[in-house]
Amino acid sequence: MFVLLIPTDIAGLEIWLKADAETGLTDNGDITTLTDQSGAAANLTYNVGTKAKWKENITVGGLPVYRCPADNTADYRTAGSPIANTERLTFFVIAKSGGDVVTALLGDASNQLFAGLCCSAVTSWTTWSVGTGPAITIDNATTAFKYYVVIIDRTTAIAGTMEVRQNGVSKDVSTSAVRNAFTNLMAFATANASNQGWDGDVLEWGIYNVAVAGANLTGLETYLNNRLTATPEAPLRSRNMMMFD
């Protein structure tokens, strides 16, 4: 039994960005550096395109967000790959999509789309590598902030499982061409050649080098759910003290 307070209490967290943990920024100001909160110093710095903005008082609870531009060109990159495990990982994010047909949250050195939301007739979560990968249908990602947990557990180069969870509910588990990018570096709001970088708001996101499961997954999703309505006046450690077996 343990007390889960924040994502760093789960082993394997290799990058964690929070808009409300950034310092020295003003409302609607350009963002040059995205500051890693995991303790691994895996900061992302501006590379090309229109810079993302730091926007105050955007979420239900009044927290700030990273707002990526509607022209889909923002691109921020790590100095190297922060991910030690290329077979298993868990990606979590609290976000609201701007509604473009394809918007990529993450990519790698080759500008491959790794994690993206497709918002057209239906909304889906997709992973790509060299243009292929599974797509799982999720609820509308444009109407409100929602949290997503994507768990990848690979057994070979392109085989394994990918589960997509939205607001604590499993939307599906895919076994179709499960892949992992991040071979050389990680790009946030990756602007590939087709300008399909992220368009929308992100409150926070992070990646573990393990497939989070069981009590750890329950605790992570409890934390994310609380963050949807957290306020600047409500410290997260006091809001999220829960016991898990």
CATH topology: Jelly Rolls
Report the strand count. Answer: 19
Number of domains: 1
Assigned CATH class: Mainly Beta
Shape: globular
Please give the radius of gyration in angstroms: 16 Å
Beta-strand proportion: 35-45%
Low-confidence stretches: 235-245
Strand count, sense and barrel status of the largest sheet are: 9 strands, antiparallel
Total helical elements: 2
Helix content: under 10%
Intertermini distance: 4 Å
CATH arch. level architecture: Sandwich
| Structural category | mainly beta
- N-to-C series of helices and strands: EEEEEEEEEEEEEEEEEEHHE
* Average pLDDT score: 77
Describe this structure in words.
7% of the residues lie in helices and 39% in strands. The chain contains 2 helices and 19 strands. It has one domain (2-244): Jelly Rolls, CATH 2.60.120. By secondary structure, the protein is mostly beta strands. It is globular, with a radius of gyration of 16 Å.
SSE diagram, text form:
Elements: E1 2-4, E2 13-18, E3 29-30, E4 33-34, E5 44-48, E6 53-55, E7 65-68, E8 75-77, E9 88-97, E10 102-107, E11 113-119, E12 123-126, E13 135-138, E14 146-154, E15 160-166, E16 169-174, E17 187-188, E18 200-208, H1 214-227, H2 236-239, E19 242-244
Antiparallel strand pairs: 1-19, 2-18, 3-6, 4-5, 5-8, 6-7, 7-18, 8-17, 9-14, 9-18, 10-11, 10-17, 11-12, 12-13, 14-15, 15-16
